[in-house]
Description:
The complex is a heterodimer. Chain A has 16 helices and 11 strands. Chain A has helices at 8-17, 22-40, 48-63, 106-113, 156-163, 180-186, 220-230, 248-251, 274-289, 305-320, 339-350, 353-366, 372-395, 418-423, 429-434, 463-476; strands at 43-45, 75-79, 117-122, 169-174, 189-192, 212-217, 260-263, 293-296, 398-402, 437-445, 451-458. The model of chain A has no long low-confidence stretch (mean pLDDT 97). By secondary structure, chain B is an alpha+beta fold. Chain B has 3 domains: 5-302, no CATH class; 309-422, no CATH class; 430-489, Arc Repressor Mutant, subunit A (Orthogonal Bundle), CATH 1.10.10. In chain B, the strands form 4 sheets. In chain B, strands 1, 5, 6, 9, 10, 11, 12, 13 and 14 form a 9-stranded mixed beta sheet that branches. In chain B, strands 4-3-15 form a 3-stranded antiparallel beta sheet, with no helix packed on it. The N and C termini of chain B lie far apart (62 Å). The interface between A and B is large, with 44 and 28 residues. Zinc ion (ZN) binds next to loops of chain B.
Amino acid sequence: MSLIDQTAVELLSNLTSGNLTSVELTGAFLDEIERRDGAVKAFLHVDADAAMAQADEIDRNRTAGKPAGRLAGMPVAVKDLLCTVDVPTTCASRMLENFCPPYDATVVARLKAADAVLIGRTNMDEFAMGGSCENSAFHPTHNPWDMDRIPGGSSGGAAACVAARMAPLSIGSDTGGSIRSPAAMCGVTGMKPTYGRVSRYGLVAFASSLDQLGPIAQTAEDTALLLEVIAGHDLMDSTSVDRPVPKYTETIGRLLEGLRIGIVPEHFGDALDDEVDAAVRESIRVYESLGATVKNISLPHGKYAVAAYYIIAPCEASGNLARYDGVHYGRRTDEHDSLIGMYSRSRSEGFGPEVKRRIMLGTYALSSGYYDAYYLKALKVRRLIRQDFDRAFDQVDLIVGPVAPTPAFKIGEKADDPLSMYLFDLYTVGTNLAGICGISIPCGISGAGLPIGLHLQAPTFEEERLLRAAAMFQRATDWHTRKPSPV
Amino acid sequence: MNKPYTTIIGLEVHVQLATRSKLFCSCSTRFGSPPNTQTCPVCIGMPGTLPVMNRKAFELSLKTAVALNCEIPRFTKWDRKQYYYPDLPKGYQISQFDLPLSQNGYLPISDSKNQFEPKRIGIIRAHLEEDAGKSMHDEAAGVADSRIDLNRCGTPLLEIVSEPDMRSPAEAKAYLTELKLLLNYLEVSDCNMQEGSLRVDANINLHIDTPEGKIATPIVEVKNMNSFRAVERALEYEAKRQYEVWQETGRKLGDVPKSTHGWDEQAQVTREQRSKEESSDYRYFPDPDLVPVATTDEQIERARASLGELPAALRTRLEQTYNITPYDSDVLVNQGRDMVEYYIEVADACGDGKPASNWIQQDVLRTLGERQIGIAQYGVSAKALGELIGLVKAGKLTTSRGREVLAEMLASGKSAEEAMKGMGIEHLDESALEDLCRELLNANPRIVAEVKEGKQKAIGALIGQAKKKNPNVNPARVREICLELIEKEN
Ligand SMILES: [Zn+2]
């Protein structure tokens, strides 16, 4: 097996034992990026020299017997919305094309402290708004399984780079499915942790009450490893939760005895592609064969989740993105004759159409006269959705279902139909609205050779349960070992 | 004096809280540093940064709210007030909208000169918010050039909104004076209007009595007032102006939108400010980056316990314990807590509140004023001043001689006794004084004769001579003794 095909856990053990240097490993992944990313376009920015220098330093420290961090020498790709000192952090937007933050996001700081090698910045939908990576202001990312198709989004680059073996580990962000959906489309494992589990400090905000950073990797074990490094309380983020981080990697091998699985019958309706339906049902049988019991549960307000999400997220976005006004940093128009003119021209030049659409949606929904009918009502629905999940988790340990209605669609296929794009999120937005955790794991390949994802959701702070359940599945199946054919 | 209308005034006061660091980051709040040197990624709103509430600012707000007799809801939250302005880098201000940290309080005001009856001014709410930066417009060069200083951006402000309970500019000024005094006693703000740590906006209109009943004029918000005196003048001007406009146009409340007028200190007039192009919709919504704040009974009790004795209670205590007039207690209390403590020590040391108050008002305050210092920097301790007043009270010094001694004490730092010794002042006993007077009378038979003829004024010359012979003589006593001796001769 070639170096880059190994899991992060295997690579780490070789790095630790001294069988492998970070320079060799980082070099191998950089070579693969060089070879493959011209076509996949998962990355927006790769500084090979900086990555190699970092790898070299970590190797030297190890040789000198200095203490090594948890991920010492391991390359990690980072979605281009995590602020990193002196590294372009563009959010795939013209607005921030030249923005280099003077500070590290907490997650970046933790990766650095763990001696991870920051190998590159991955592509995304502009400001994480989208589900296909087509909304990047710079270029779309292609699905390594079929170069005509989308990799999912918004963390499309983050998932594609792991699928194409250009990085062993990668950080994405998930506001309504933006980690899980591309993980499903690209045949990798991706987790959205509980809201508050991972610090948002330095994550350029899309919708603050929904955004959460999470790991993307080949396997559940690798996901556990990365989560262990990035999770934990942060004084810089008031919404991060002060709660110890379990040793996910130590418990992940343990079987979940008497696992109770809930399925939502409505999730297997007309919207669901037949092949996805079959793969998900087959996966549930796998769990049954491992001793799980299955029960139908109801999430009665689930049908309002997409509507509530597309009110709440744009409302928060309209506020979060107000700072991009051309005054202090970011894009400023060359032509302006007045303050208002400068604002509106800078913003119309700097933002792409989807970002503008969501800012307008949010601004409208928060305007006086509409606030109660839209924003407040959406908050009420959100509370009901949370209650639905609470009740469901009284009866079951996990909710299992599809991640997305279909496998990856063609680039451009939904470009003129934002509504069908929004409806693509119907299985994932509930997790964010409820603040619980969810994971996507590979569970099949369609007739067209496209990966299919299985969605597991657990109550707040039950990442350990999710990871153990995912690992159980991955010990029983080999979908996660499939990879796109090499170029 | 009797006007055909009642003036209705409500005030919005923004107070900068005396915290070392800003409301949502750890930058310093110091005034007067070079532009943009007290900023960080959080307070300049860079992408990805998050606010974290300053506990101290919340405590100071709570303390103030309790002192203003406010109700403290057990749950309060943060909201984003959204608008675009270059000195507001995030495009929104973090403030409190529908669930402020306190509401429904009051501040009693009174006037020691009795221009109005004592009353309570209602407080609608007091809430915490972050300040914006400062825009500096330089249009001198012909081309408009705006610069922005974000040092102030994120500084904690407590906004205290009164009910429209004030009925005259004098009441408005009294409310502001009392509020500022309270804030000083609480040590929650330095209330420096020049540095912008206390800002006042006023809402004013008139209720006019007409044969058809009471008519309200449109409400005007008055801004740009840089002193309490300016507030009073601006409101006086504005009331007159509104009455004249009403007489001319008959416009009532509701006929025109609320307007904003700025006070022109130079011209002593209010001028209408360019109204915003569209009515402002701030699109408030709860800030998802901050968690709501739960206020506990213990926190409120701790705040209450930390208040100390407040101005209104202190005035009453001084009047009752030291037997001074409301006017005097007002003057002393208005000087601040240090001065009250100083006064009490002086009064206790000399055993009499009245002269203690007089000496402080006439002598100490003048020196403090001349030297632009506070009582803490004043060179004579309360104990030493009390001792001096005691000597004057006992007749061992005249008041004017006492002033000279005080000046010496101030210059040298000596005690009253030491200063007197240094100045050669010693107390003459009665027999010595009598000997001196007798000697003078013997030497001045003409004066004695004049007095006998009824010209008592002639004694004056003897007093002058007595002082020359011994500067410590008490002139009144010399006069008395001389008259007695002449009387006896008859
Ligand atoms: Zn700051």
